[in-house]
Amino acid sequence: MPTFSDRVERIEISGIREVFEAAGADAINLGLGQPDFPTPDHAREAAVEAIRAGKTDAYTANKGIESLREAIAEKHRVDQGIDLDPANIVATAGASEALHIAIEAHVSAGQEVIVPDPGFVSYDALTKLAGGEPVPVGLRDDLTIDPAAIEAAITEDTAAFIVNSPGNPTGAVSSEDDVREFARIADEHDVLCISDEVYEYTVFDGEHYSPMEFTDGGDVVVINAVSKLFSMTGWRLGWAYGAADRVDRMVRVHQYAQACASAPAQYAAEAALRGDRGIVAEMTDSFERRRDLLLSGLADAGIECPTPRGAFYAMPKVPEGFVSECIDRGVVVVPGEAFGARGAGSARISYATGEDDLRTAIDVMAEAYEAAR
C-alpha cells in the first residue's frame, strides 16, 4: 500500500477549483482570475519567429535568455527606479513557480511564514509543501495588509513574510507608507519579505510601490510575471529577483524542478516588455469601468463591499449560503474562506469578464443575496 508524504497530505485542492467544478457549463464565471484580453500581437509573433528560426529547440540558460532578463531589468528601472542586475533575475514558469522557488529556497522545516488572511491560496499551500508553518495575519477593514500586524507576528522562527499589492483576493493597494514599512521590517528583523507584484499595472486609485524601492539590503525578493501585466496567463512566464545569494539558492531549486522556463514564452515575454504598452492602459481603463459597474450594482442590492483600488477583484461581505445561491443560479463566485479563515463571511468576485455578463451576474447576485439573508 503506497503512502504519501506528510507535506502533500497537509494541503487540499484549491477551493477555487471546487467551485468551478460545481458550476454548470454555461455559468457566468466570476471566479477566474484571468484578463479577458488577447495577448498582444507583437508578443505572439515574437514567439512564432523564434520557433521558425530554431531558437526554441533547446534548453535556455537556467535563469533564462539574457535578452529577456535585460528587458525585465529595464522594466524595473523605468517603473521603480531600481538599478537591477540582469544576473539577479531568474525567469520561471509563471509567478506560481517563482513563489515556489522563493519559499523552498528560504524556509526550513518548522520555520514560519507570515501570510495575509485572506490571501492568495498558494501562500499557505507552498509554505506547507516546504515543511514550513503558515502564520496568517488579518487585514484592516479596507483589506490592506497592516505592517504592524506583520511585525507583531514575527518570532525567532520567522523565515519570511509575504505581501501582495495590488492584492488577490481583495483588490487592495498598499500605500507608500505601508510599503516603506514592509522594507523596514525586513531590514530591521533580518526576515525575508516576499513581495508578490503580479497585478502591478492594474491600479485605479493611487500608485503601485515595491518594497525593493525602499531598501539597500538584501532582504526583499520580488515576484512578477507577464501573466496579468500583458494578459499572458497561458504563456506561463514569470520571474523572481533579489540579492545575488538569494537568486543563487532559488536557481538551485529551479534547475531541478523546471530546468528553464519555456523558450517560446521567453521570447514572447521579451517582446511584450519591450513593445507597445497600449494594452496596459486599455485593460486598466476597462477594469476600472467594470469595478465601478460592480460596486454600483452591489450597493443597489444592499451588499457592503470595500472599494478595490487595483487588480480585478472585489470582496463583498455576504451571508451564509450566498455562494451556493449564486452557483445554483448560474454565476460562479468564490467563497472567502477559500483564501483563509478570516475570509469567511465574504466572497471573491473577479470582474475580468464582459460588461454584459457582469450586468447579468449583478442581477443574479442581488437575487442570491435576498435568498440567503
Can you walk through the features of this model?
Helix 5 (94-106) packs across helix 10 (244-257) and helix 13 packs across helix 14 (355-372). The protein is α/β, with parallel strands linked by helices and 373 residues long. The longest helix is centred in the last third of the chain and has 23 residues, at 278-300. Strands 2-8-7-6-5-3-4 form a 7-stranded mixed β-sheet, sandwiched between helices. It is built from 14 helices and 12 strands.
Radius of gyration: 20 Å
Residues in helices, as a percent range = 40-55%
Derived structural class: alpha/beta
Encode the helix/strand succession as letters: HHEHHEHEHEHEHEEHEHHHEHEEEH
Our count of helices gives: 14
Tertiary shape: globular
Number of strands: 12
Mean pLDDT: 96
Quick summary of this structure?
This protein is α/β, with parallel strands linked by helices and 373 residues long. It contains 14 helices and twelve strands.
Essential attributes:
alpha/beta, 373 residues, globular, 7-stranded mixed β-sheet, 3-stranded antiparallel β-sheet
Please give the structural blueprint.
Layout: H1 6-9, H2 15-22, E1 28-29, H3 41-52, H4 66-80, E2 89-92, H5 94-106, E3 112-117, H6 121-129, E4 133-138, H7 147-153, E5 158-164, H8 176-189, E6 192-196, E7 220-225, H9 226-229, E8 238-241, H10 244-257, H11 263-274, H12 278-300, E9 313-314, H13 322-328, E10 331-332, E11 334-335, E12 347-350, H14 355-372
Parallel strand pairs: 1-10, 3-4, 3-5, 5-6, 6-7
Antiparallel strand pairs: 2-8, 7-8, 9-12, 11-12
Helix pairs in contact: 3-11, 4-11, 5-6, 5-10, 12-14, 13-14
